[in-house]
């Protein structure tokens, strides 16, 4: 009897949805979606009819698929100079100084609690969303569903993030169709994926809930929490520029995780005055038709790459952080 009532209610709700609100191609009849709905019901106690109704209002988003697919025609070669210019410019540095001034007490509290410098927290938020100005225009549930059920190369990952997102929305009493984010489903001022938000985000403004879309304090505390839980070393360095007097290929092949003392890198041709006992990894920043920049990244550099698996990203965060810090000191 109860099941019949649920089905009747779902049918009535579906009838109330205007035809203009329904997508041309819906997830409603997709067998993979039906199996996912059943898993969410059995594993987490979701109402299957309620969840199926929400999928019925969504269809695959071609813009999401275009954004995540590798370009059919190779784009310009990777260029550190071009990448750096996107994030290290007067506008973003000045906005970072203003953000720091506005949230100075909160940033200091996060730095003391988690051991992560204020400028690093500011820079990550600056790179991710320009201090909350560009948090994304895609429906998070639609973006994640599109990637979970229409993008086979990474379907398992995004299916897991869709699961985490639905749990997150339920925990916070939010209709999952409401939240907006990036084409990959990242949410809020610091662009956390749903799984990261559930694992690492914190209620830093003390209002009893985690809100990364509106609360700068929660965003600040959550970025610091994320870095700390990934092994940030308080007081440790991030990276130093070096010269390489031999073929760098063998050292670059070791990866960006600093698992060997600098003494081994020095023996391989790296020239640096840094402590030979410190663990480091060789980083190359390539710009076509220009001399490659070489740096040694320490543990904290590697930790930044846990936020985004890119040495370009980590170096942009580091250099933006230094520029913002120096600019604020000059004031």
From TrEMBL:
InterPro entries in UniProt: Lysozyme-like_dom_sf, Lytic_transglycosylase_MltB, MltB-like, SLT_2
Any Pfam family hit: SLT_2
What CDD domains does this protein's entry cite? Slt35-like (cd13399)
Q: Which UniProt keywords apply?
A: Signal
- Domain Transglycosylase SLT stretches: 30-322
**Which residues does the entry assign to the active site, renumbered to this chain?**
128
Listed GO biological process terms = peptidoglycan catabolic process
The residue range of the signal peptide is 1-23
**Alphabetized GO MF terms:** peptidoglycan lytic transglycosylase activity
- Where does the source fall among the domains of life? Bacteria
Q: What is this protein called?
A: Lytic murein transglycosylase B
Q: Which organism is it from?
A: Azospira restricta
């Amino acid at each position: 009897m109860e099941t019949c009532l649920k089905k009747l209610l779902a049918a009535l709700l579906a009838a109330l949805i205007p035809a203009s609100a329904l997508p041309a191609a819906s997830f409603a009849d997709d067998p993979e979606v039906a199996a996912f709905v059943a898993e969410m019901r059995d594993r987490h106690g979701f109402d299957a009819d309620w969840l199926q109704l929400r999928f019925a209002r969504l269809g695959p988003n071609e813009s999401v698929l275009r954004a995540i697919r590798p370009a059919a025609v190779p784009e310009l070669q990777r260029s550190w100079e071009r990448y750096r210019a996107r994030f290290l410019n007067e506008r973003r540095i000045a906005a970072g100084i203003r953000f720091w001034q506005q949230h100075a007490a909160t940033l200091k509290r996060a730095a003391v609690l988690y051991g992560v410098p204020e400028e690093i927290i500011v820079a990550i938020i600056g790179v991710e969303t320009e201090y909350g100005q560009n948090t994304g225009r895609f429906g998070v549930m639609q973006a994640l569903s599109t990637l979970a059920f229409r993008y086979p190369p990474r379907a398992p990952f995004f299916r897991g993030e869709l699961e985490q997102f639905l749990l997150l929305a339920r925990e916070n009493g939010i209709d999952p169709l409401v939240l907006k984010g990036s084409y990959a489903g990242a949410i809020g001022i610091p662009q956390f994926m749903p799984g990261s938000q559930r694992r690492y985000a914190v209620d830093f403004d003390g209002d009893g809930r985690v809100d990364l879309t509106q609360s700068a304090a929660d965003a600040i505390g959550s970025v610091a929490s994320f870095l700390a839980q990934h092994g940030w070393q308080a007081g440790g360095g991030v990276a130093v520029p070096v010269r390489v007097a031999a073929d760098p290929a063998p050292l670059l092949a070791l990866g960006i995780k600093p698992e060997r003392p600098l003494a081994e890198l020095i023996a391989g041709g790296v020239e640096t005055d840094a402590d030979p006992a410190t663990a480091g990894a060789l980083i190359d920043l390539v710009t076509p038709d220009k001399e490659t920049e070489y740096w040694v990244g320490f543990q904290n550099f590697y930790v930044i790459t846990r936020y985004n698996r890119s040495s370009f990203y980590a170096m942009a965060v580091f250099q933006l952080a230094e520029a913002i810090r120096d600019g604020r000191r000059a004031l």
